[in-house]
Amino acid sequence: MQEMRKITRLQIGEGLSIRLTFDDGSTRAFDLAPLLKKGGVYSPLARTDYFKSARVAPDGRYVEWPDGLDLCADALWIEGVPTHESA
């Protein structure tokens, strides 16, 4: 069984993109714009100040925002685009 991934670093990118470094050293870029198009709980992402308030959860398993919105590390790793930049 594969271990759950953990995020060790979060960088806010252009627009609604984030770049994540994981505990295995891999990095992934993830664009949150498609989530914003879904609306609902993702609507606050449209506010720049809210989007930029993202942080890595203490256990490394989520990117989270102050009001409880979060995105799972495993889903971000699967859906993210691998980058070849050093962390």
Name some characteristics of this structure.
87 residues, alpha+beta, four-stranded antiparallel beta sheet, three-stranded antiparallel beta sheet, 20% helix
How would you characterize the overall build of this protein?
- The protein has 87 residues and is an alpha+beta fold.
- The chain has one domain: NE0471-like N-terminal domain (NE0471 N-terminal domain-like, 2-Layer Sandwich).
- It has 3 helices and 7 strands; from the N terminus they run E-E-E-H-H-E-E-E-H-E.
- It has helices spanning 33-38, 48-51, 73-79; strands at 7-12, 17-22, 27-31, 55-56, 62-64, 70-72, 81-83.
- Strands 1-2-3-7 form a 4-stranded antiparallel β-sheet. The protein has a 3-stranded antiparallel β-sheet with strand order 4-5-6.
List the helices and strands and how they pair.
Elements: E1 7-12, E2 17-22, E3 27-31, H1 33-38, H2 48-51, E4 55-56, E5 62-64, E6 70-72, H3 73-79, E7 81-83
Antiparallel strand pairs: 1-2, 2-3, 3-7, 4-5, 5-6
Strand order of the largest sheet: 1-2-3-7
Largest sheet, in brief, is:
4 strands, antiparallel
- CATH C-level class: Alpha Beta
What radius of gyration results from the CA coordinates?
12 Å
**DSSP summary: helix tally:** 3
Please outline what is shown here.
This protein is an alpha+beta fold. The protein is built from three helices and seven strands, in the order βββααβββαβ. It has a single domain, classed as NE0471 N-terminal domain-like (2-Layer Sandwich).
